Amino acid sequence: MTKLILILLLLLVSINNLYAISKTICGGVDDRVLYDDQKMARLHNGPLGKHGCTATLISDRCLISAGHCENFFKVLEFNVPLSNWDGSINHAKGQDTYLIDPKSIVLGGVAGNDWAVMKALKHHETDYYPGEIYGFYKVSFLVKANDNISIAGYGQSRFKEHNNVLKIASGVIGKIEVFRLYYQVDTTSGDSGAVIINQRKEIVGIHTLGGCNNDYNKGIFIGANPELMDAISKCVSE
After folding, report:
1. At the N or C end, where does the chain have fewer CB atoms within 10 A?
2. pLDDT in tens, 207-228
C-alpha cells in the first residue's frame, strides 16, 4: 500500500511538472537549445538548497532578476554543468559559485512590478567580483513591437540532462502594454528572472510570467519602469 501511494505521488508530481512546462512552451514544441553564456547565473538558496531562478550580470557585481524569486537570492552559480540522467542537478565548481549580498537587494515596490536588482559579493578565494571574470551585459531602455529577442535561463526541461541548465530560445516582441512585454518565446519554471535580449546583445527586459499556451509569455519592460531604471543606475554607479 505504501509503495502504491509513493508511485501515485511521483506520477502526480510528474504530471504537474509536464503541465507547468506546457503552459510556457509556445506552439507545443520546445525550441530551446543549450547555451554557453557565463554572464548568466543559476540562483539557489543554499549549498544543499533548492534551485529556482535565473539572474544576469549587468556590471562587475550587479545582477537583475525577477522579484518573485526573492527566496533564492542567496547563491549564484555560473558555468553550470549538465544535469544527471534522472534530471537531478549538478552544482557548479566552487570557483564559479558566489554569494549575494543580502543588504543590496532592491525589489519592485508596485504590485505586478516583478523585478529585483542585487549585488554579488567578491569570491572568498579569488577576491574577484563575478563580472570581472565573466563579463556583463549592457542595458537598453529601447524596444518596440516586432523586435527580435532571445531569452536564456535555467528552466526545467523534459530532456533530463538539460533540466535547470542554461538554454536559449528566440522570437519577437508581440506587443507592449505599459511596463509589460509580451512574446512567444519558450520558457519554463526556473527561467523566471532571465533577461530579454535584443539583437544588439543588450538587455531590454526581465522574463517574469508564463502563459504562452493561451497567448504570450510576459516580462518587465525596463525602459518603461523609472523605479527599475533608477535601481539599475544606482547599482552600477556605486
Report:
1. N
2. 999 888 778 999 999 999 999 9
